[in-house]
Amino acid sequence: MNTPIGFGCPKFDFAIYINNQPNMIEYQNLDTVLSLTQGEIYSIGQACGNGWRKIFNVYAKLLFALNNNDFNYCKSSDTWQKYRDDYLLQNNYRTALLFNPPVLNSNLEILHIICGRTYAKELINSGKLLAQLIWLDDEFAIDKKNKLIICPYLDYRQLSNIKIERLSKMLTELKT
What we know:
alpha/beta, 15% strand
């Protein structure tokens, strides 16, 4: 079984998977889920550029868009920006940004989101992802049994506000 590698709460129940990680020496040898500290997201954005700022912003916007009756990640924040700065990917907030493929069927309480159709297809073609995906269109796919969604990459143009709303509704359906 693969050990999750990335940022966030080690006891996550909401995981987003991407095919890259910050190009910073302190993160190159990660072998577990590292809880970020307040200010660390800002530091990564400063060191690694606009692409990483977008990843964190879109992640926070997605969590903030979720139905509060089904998800309570942002209950302590008035804005997605405040959530990003004060809680995103920190210990005890049950979210993760992972840099290795998901382990499915290990815990059906975890919602899995793979960002990027190309990354998802690479995982499928290499045998690293065994899922029963139903492609809804060119950008979104779902495997209800494994609570897995494929969506566009965490970028404003690819995962726009309209697509964040769509993803939010899909996640509510998986949760209930």
